[in-house]
Amino acid sequence: MPGAIHAEGLVKTFGDVTALDGVDLDVPEGTVLGLLGPNGAGKTTTVRVLTTLLRPDRGTATVAGIDVLAHPNEVRRSIGLSGQFAAVDEYLTGRENLQMVGQLYQMDSRAAKRRAGELLDRFHLADAADRPAKTYSGGMRRRLDLAAALVVSPPVMFMDEPTTGLDPRNRQALWEVIKELVSGGTTLLLTTQYLEEADHLAHDIAVVDHGKVIARGTSDQLKARTGGERVEVVVHERAAVAPAREVLARYGPGDRGLDDVSVEDHTRKLTVPVTGGAKLLAEVIRDLDAVGIEIDDIGLRRPTLDDVFISLTGHAAAREREEDGEERPPARGRKHRKEPAA
Amino acid sequence: MTTLTDTAPHAPAPRGGIAGSIADSLVVTKRNLIRMTRIPEMVVFGLVQPVMFVILFSFVFGGSLNIGGSTDPKAYREFLMAGIFAQTVTFATAGAGAGIADDMSKGLVDRFRSLPMARGAVLTGRTLADLVQTTLTVVVLAVVGLLVGWRIHEGIPKALGAFALLLLLGYAFSWIGALIGLSVRTPEAATSGGLIWLFPVTFVSNAFVDPEQMASWIRPIAEWNPFSATVQACRELFGNPGVVQSDAWPMQHPVWASLLWSLVIIAVFRTLAVRKYRSASA
């Protein structure tokens, strides 16, 4: 049985830019899929197709069991969308925004008013409820935008880079809300360029690059693909780098001799892939001590999703962070509002 | 997790049909009217411009133009008002265009398009809110007109008919504005794009001079201009001087011509704008 979100072979081109190049996704009910990738990878375009905002050139998709292309209006009744750019009317108050959304979900005005009040309380916006949204901080706007997506209880939620531009405190607060939401059984598709965020929130991760899903799995599975742990040593003196390398090479896989150990001369840091865990650290320290090498730091490092990304794509996730635009249809500009940190 | 999902109502059954479409449009109209009260300077600027035109035309050009064989400035002011009224209502184009383009650029259109609402409601709500503003402007303009010497000579019912034609024309033009707003990138472009072509439309007409005095090739354009039909209809219904004597059908039957033109513009541009909105991608 297909999941709450299911897509096969989505293709979308804008002029000669291929935004989606055959995206396949499946998100089981009640789980969170993190769509991870740099700007321009096709994350936003995928969300726009699945939320009926954009028709793909090819491919099929269902959301909550409903065909997105054949019955877009029924899909709209089952989804909540919280965008990268807080889509609230800045001249309306928080309360007016939520009431309007409620009424557009066909609630009568009394029900819409009641629901708006509940959400404002829940998102700690009650004090600011009757101020125009343009007076809100970046974090407050995001909360209002998220509240607007939750006016009815949609079984499937889409969040497009929900925490981009937020300061760490507001990001944490938003994560708590998202976790709460998911524990209530909502299926969530979340796009992010923050590896930490995907690690933190998502059950499954799909890594997207150049309009394709290039890897998928749990965070642990993806990390395992990148290889296991590494021992990282920082020696005290530059002269100790060469002898330390000889010592560490004994712990490496052994097939490349000294080359198993990578060296960063200027930081006096040596790294070697190992198997054996924490127990091994004690042995390494003893061996280094035996040849009189003084160390500043030593640690067992597990791969981060950044490592995963680099090993999968050959470039860091942050690479394209500055170039923006592929993700948007190039025919139309959109104001990219940089949110002030709240 | 109580408030997030447990108490959340599921979306009620769709209203659908015309009733649903009207209800959604009114929700969006209300939203746009609230916005206007939060940006009162926009409404004020919308009022200042036509008032300024009345004063400039009355006192600068007033004595130099010949209306129906008379160079009496008072006759010119009576002649002028129908033109100013019509020009003012068509300026609603810029407001509608800028409003829609702003919603597109801010991501609000994405929000609306992800909701299970009637497809045309965002645009209808915008044009209806503009109609409210246009009505307000016309009322203010009528008062200023009365102050400078403009008068209604054919009775209140006919005058109300003229105002109805004016508002219908303004409503029709705001659909052109909606299409412009959906087609450009920024509110700024929508404002200038909404205004620039209005100058030839309003000047190649009977609004400020008698087409009799225009070059012979341009005259038929002026006489068949939808804008001219409404101006001519207003002069007839208000009993103001300067009714164009011409064999052109719209000049002979200006009330019908005005009505038809406005309805045709609404039908064509509403269809195009709603289609564009459905496929809009901000």
Automatic annotation (TrEMBL), chain B:
<keyword id="KW-0472">Membrane</keyword>
<feature type="domain" description="ABC transmembrane type-2">
    <location>
        <begin position="41"/>
        <end position="280"/>
    </location>
</feature>
<feature type="transmembrane region" description="Helical">
    <location>
        <begin position="79"/>
        <end position="101"/>
    </location>
</feature>
<dbReference type="InterPro" id="IPR051784">
    <property type="entry name" value="Nod_factor_ABC_transporter"/>
</dbReference>
<keyword id="KW-1003">Cell membrane</keyword>
<dbReference type="InterPro" id="IPR013525">
    <property type="entry name" value="ABC2_TM"/>
</dbReference>
<comment type="similarity">
    <text>Belongs to the ABC-2 integral membrane protein family.</text>
</comment>
<dbReference type="InterPro" id="IPR000412">
    <property type="entry name" value="ABC_2_transport"/>
</dbReference>
<dbReference type="GO" id="GO:0046677">
    <property type="term" value="P:response to antibiotic"/>
</dbReference>
<keyword id="KW-0812">Transmembrane</keyword>
<protein>
    <recommendedName>
        <fullName>Transport permease protein</fullName>
    </recommendedName>
</protein>
<dbReference type="InterPro" id="IPR047817">
    <property type="entry name" value="ABC2_TM_bact-type"/>
</dbReference>
<keyword id="KW-1133">Transmembrane helix</keyword>
<dbReference type="GO" id="GO:0140359">
    <property type="term" value="F:ABC-type transporter activity"/>
</dbReference>
<feature type="transmembrane region" description="Helical">
    <location>
        <begin position="122"/>
        <end position="148"/>
    </location>
</feature>
<dbReference type="Pfam" id="PF01061">
    <property type="entry name" value="ABC2_membrane"/>
</dbReference>
<feature type="transmembrane region" description="Helical">
    <location>
        <begin position="43"/>
        <end position="67"/>
    </location>
</feature>
<feature type="transmembrane region" description="Helical">
    <location>
        <begin position="255"/>
        <end position="273"/>
    </location>
</feature>
<feature type="transmembrane region" description="Helical">
    <location>
        <begin position="189"/>
        <end position="209"/>
    </location>
</feature>
<feature type="transmembrane region" description="Helical">
    <location>
        <begin position="160"/>
        <end position="182"/>
    </location>
</feature>
<keyword id="KW-0046">Antibiotic resistance</keyword>
<keyword id="KW-0813">Transport</keyword>
<dbReference type="GO" id="GO:0043190">
    <property type="term" value="C:ATP-binding cassette (ABC) transporter complex"/>
</dbReference>
